Batch of 3 targets.
Target 1
Amino acid sequence: MENFVDGNEATETADWEDVGEDKIPMVLAEMAKEGKDSIYILNSIRRIMKWSAKCPEVEMKMYRPKNIQWRSSVIVTAEGKLDVAFIFSPYKSCSFLLSAIRENGIIKMENQPMVYFGVPEEFFGHLEHEIISGEFTAAWSFVFNSYWLPPETAKKFKVDVPTGFTISRLDPSHASTVNSVWPYASASSLALVYDTILVNETAGLFEEKNSRLVSWILHVYYGLGMLYTEKEYRRRGYGTIMVKALSKRLAENGAEINLLAKEDNVEANSVFQKLGFQATGPVMVIQIQSRS
């Protein structure tokens, strides 16, 4: 992210405009010009678009600054059964993003969304402070490494199914099991897991003898996620098998493959890099929560 502005320009307050549906492809094309810095947020927006098309209960809106100086910046919100926001900006300034959060009401904090920041890392602290300095706070806040997997790499994956097991999609009856062990589960996350299983690709490893689900992964709006293996089945490589199986299927269907890994999870980052995932920069994620 190498878009610099001088000190005077950086203090301007930018007004934001709602991007009409007909202009969204143009805005996404502008984002794509930022290369790997934009790829995670860009593909997440595309996933949100597909989600809202399949789930009418989810309303997506896109905003960008009216000032042409900041035109590569984008805020996308999804409201309804899914409450999230994605913020992307390549600029070495965050004053106009602060104005969007503080004054424009673009992100409806009262909905307690999960907010993803794809901005220069030096601004993470400023933006987090702005969000939690009022009547809202953070239930949690983490910095993740974002990754992208080239489709040609995924298509070459060899998926070795362990003897006595089979790989197949999850069904909605598995939603409660998945949600019960997801570290970021909330009061509304069961519905998210249920809808994800309904509308997106998933992969599960099942014992043939009793159909027990022992390992799984879902293609969530933020990329590959909710990866989990039951404790007594760990250290057998089942998690890696799940990543390969779902990535290969997504690539064959023409979908982009992204994921997030916590910065301090050395083992996970190492595994993803060995599989061919390419680092695309840090992303800060904040789960908003009311102080009351």
Target 2
Amino acid sequence: MEWSRTENLKPQYVYIRRNGYAEGDPNLNERYRGQRCSVSEKKLAGGDLSLELRGLHLSDEGTYQCNAPNLHTDLHSRSCSTNLHVGNVSQPEIYSAGPKDGGLSLTCDSGCWYPRPEMSWLDSEGTVLDAEASVTYTPSEHCYAVQSNLTARGTGRLTCRVHLAHINHTTEAHHDIPLIPGLNAGHITAIVIGSLCAVGALILLAYGSVAVGKIIRKRMCCQDLL
């Protein structure tokens, strides 16, 4: 049984199994040797050839193909393939820059993401608010950083939402502005309470996609080939 990359990777094999894991096979790509790839012995006995890939990198994105012999007939081996999507995510942060135009100036900083994410502000009712945004890209780090400025008027919870459609991953930060009688948003700068709420900096997504940063592993499915 073999797992391989369909792109221009030489050698193309990421996992080879003969009578056990063939780590010493010269056709196995160096990037995938050792403990990066594995197949469950228990699941293998039931016909599940799913590959688990650890220590993901952006360069791991691509199409993976599984080839397995047909043990029930004399036909040639059967195959299946799956697409792995990889992205880098961070936890956004909100900070206050003080009073502005009768309100409170807030900035949301996405941190490092890849590919480029979308950022939006929402009020306590879930309504999307108008806000300015700027994007900085650092090629050497494959890093997109988004900053968005909002002038908040009134009280309640504001949410900065960052979404990466490439891997269908969303992370949020929240900022609470308390209601205090006799004070408006421009007067409560010193007592604004800020909090962060992470949907998750580490998350494993569904079949065919994954978010990384410090993500450890991804399981790619290939069943019922035996």
Target 3
Amino acid sequence: MASARSTVKRLLVSPAAGGVRCLATSAARQSAGAPPAPKYYELRTYDIKQSKWDEFVRLTTEKIHMRFAASKCNVYLCADPGPEPRRRPFNEVTHIWEYDDLVQRAGVRKSLGSDKQWLADYLLPMLDTAAAHQSNSVMLPAPWWPLRPSTDGRNHFAVRKTQLHPGKTGAWSEAVKDELAGEGDNAPLGVWVTDIGDLDSVHELYSYPSHTALVEHQQHRDREAVKFDGTLIKERRWSAYVLAPWSTWSV
């Protein structure tokens, strides 16, 4: 239990300094008459112990509403158990959370860190018995790609991460934005650039009507990306998911 409590403290309380920076920046933008700053999004990924998967699903189904009440969840996904060899282990979950700014994010984390019911009923049991590994990235939406709704029935999702060479985010954006706009229903639901975490990385979120459609389109995206390998792209990968039963995609 001690290790879980130390994990809670590290995950929920420590990043408050980022909120102070954002508050000063927001005030400066308002005084200068600048347009509102973009929202922040946090991508969180957990590896769940295979032996504890059913317990994790039960616990999250029953208690995740407590977390949803604290801030907006854009989507919550569970790894798709399809046969694609490049997918991550079946026991992975990932979710995206929306914040007005880093001040709100710091406030939510501080509030959750002191919420005894949340800690006792969900977070500590989940960390003690289910979560084996986790990572997160704080992201800003690409200014050239507004978030868009998903079509009904497209419950298979792909998260595509592209690690770029330092300073190449702008060049990559210019190279792909028209190409992505031409993808029709398979165009990304969102494109985000990492602000805190793996810098010079981009995440794209896609939805599909089936696992087969997901694999075919992501392989197509791989073929399109080959021409940028080495010059713009350092590393790229994608993971397949299905929509969690307690979630929707919310813009």
